Amino acid sequence: MKKVLASALVVFMAISCSKSEEPGVVGGDGFIFSAAAPSTRAYFPGESGLMYWNNYDNIAAYSFDNTTLLASDYCAITAESAGTNEGQFKPTNILTSNAWTASQADTKTATFYAYYPATNAAATYDNATNGVLLNIPTNQSDEFGKSQICFSTGVEMTVAEIKKSKLVRFAFEPATSLLRVRFTLSKDSDLSETHIKQLTISATGVLGGDCLLDFADGSLTPRGNNSTISVVLRSAVKITKNADENPYIYAVLMPSTASVGTLSFTATTSEGVKLTVAQKSSPADGFQGGVRYSLDREIAIKVNPDSPDASYIDGGDAWGSQIIEDGSYNDAGNAW
After folding, report:
1. DSSP 226
2. Could you give phi then psi for residue 107, rounded to 5 degrees?
3. Which of 3, 123, 245, 271 is least buried, going by the fewest C-beta atoms within 10 A?
4. Which of 99, 95, 97, 79 is nearest to 87 (CA)?
C-alpha cells in the first residue's frame, strides 16, 4: 500500500512540474499587449476628452526576428479594458513570451507590429510583400472606428525584456484617410430642416475594398477597384440652417497618391428620397493616409408643390478646416 501511494505521489508531482514548466498549456504566463486608445475613435463617453476603446477593438499582433516571422495572433480586448482609455489585449493562441520570441537567446531582439480592428483571426503575413491583406468596407456605419485601419510601427525589445515584462506596448496611428461631410441648409431654403440617413460617395478611382498593409511604413495599397463608399447611419441626422447644429457624416477612404477623379455625393433622407449634391474634384495629390478631409457644404431646398420630392440646389464647394474631435488624423486644411 505504501508503494502504491508513493508511486501516485511521484506521478502527481511529475504532472505538477510539467504544468509549471509549460504555462501555455494551462493559460500562458500572463503575456499581454497594451495601448492607449488613439484619438481616432468615434466613442466619447462623458466629457473627459479621452477616447475610449470599444468592445470591437480587437487587434492582430506579429513578432519578427529581422524579416523572419516568429509568431502572429488575434488578440481580444479584455472585458476590463472596453470602455477605458488604456486597452489590454490578450492573445488567443500564442500565450507565452517564449512562444512570441521562438525561445531565442535573451540577448536577441524581436520586433512587434500590430493593426486594428481585427476580426476572428490575424491576417496571413506575406513575406514577398512584407504585409497583410486587409479590407476597407464599402458599406460603413457612423461608427467609423469599425471601418478604419490603424497600425503600430515596430516595437523592438530584447528577449530578456520581453520575458521580464511579459508586455508589449503599441502606439496606433491611422493608416486610412478620413473624409467628413457636413450639410447646411441655405437661409432661403423652403424647409427649415431635413433628415439624412445615408451618404454615398463615388469616384472614378478606388475608395475602398481590399488593400495591402505594408509593415515597413504602415502604408495601404489598393488591391481592388471599388469606387463607391456608402455610409448608413444608425439614426438619421437632422440638417438645419445653422451649421453649428449640424453633425458631420464620416467616411473612411482608401489612401491614394494621386487624384481619384471627380467625387459624386448622394444623400438619402429618412423617407428614402435621394438628394444629389454637386460633384467635387478630389485632391490633386490624392487622399493621404492618416489625413482627415472636411467638406462644409451649403445646400438649398426648393420644394415643388406639384412633386413629392424636393429639388436640391448646390450651395457651394468650400472645404472646411476646423477639427475639434477626431484626434490623430492630420488636418488637410484648405489645400484641397
Report:
1. B
2. -80, -15
3. 3
4. 79
CB 259 within 8 A of CB 280: no
A 10 A CB-CB count for 253 gives: 26
199's grid cell: 451618404
Model confidence pLDDT, tens digit, residues 185-223? 889 888 899 999 999 999 999 999 999 999 999 999 999
Look at the block and give the residue holding cell 455610409: 231
Residue 186 sits at the vertex; the CA angle it makes with 180 and 187, to the nearest 5 degrees, is 145
Which residues lie below 8 Å from residue 166, measured CB to CB, with a gap of 6+? 29, 30, 31, 32, 97
For CA atoms 114, 118, 120, 122, the dihedral sign is negative
What pLDDT sits at residue 305?
Answer: 65
pLDDT tens digits, 47-68: 455 678 888 889 999 999 999 9
Give yes or no for residue 257 having a pLDDT over 60: yes
Give the 3-state secondary structure of residue 13: helix
Burial of 264 (0-12, 13-18, 19+ CB in 10 A): middle
Q: Which of 137, 123, 115 is nearest to 59 (CA)?
A: 115
Whether omega before 117 lies within 30 degrees of 0, making that bond cis, reads yes
Closest CA to 194 of 275, 113, 294, 123: 275
First to last CA, the chain: 88
- Give the SS3 label for residue 49: coil
Rounded Cα gap, residues 286 and 293, in angstroms: 11
- Say if residue 326 is exposed, middle or buried (CB neighbours under 10 Å; 0-12, 13-18, 19+): buried
Tell me the whole-structure pTM to 2 decimals: 0.81
| Confidence grade of residue 327 (pLDDT, cut at 50, 70, 90) | very low
For cell 430642416, name the residue.
Answer: 193
Q: What is the dihedral of CA 307, 310, 314, 320, to 10 degrees?
A: -170
Task: Please classify residue 109 by burial: count the beta carbons closer than 10 Å to its beta carbon, then call 0-12 exposed, 13-18 middle and 19+ buried.
Answer: middle
Read off the pLDDT of residues 1-20 as tens digits, 9 standing for 90 and up. Answer: 444 444 443 333 333 333 33
Residue 182's Cβ-side half-sphere holds a number of Cα atoms within 13 Å equal to 20
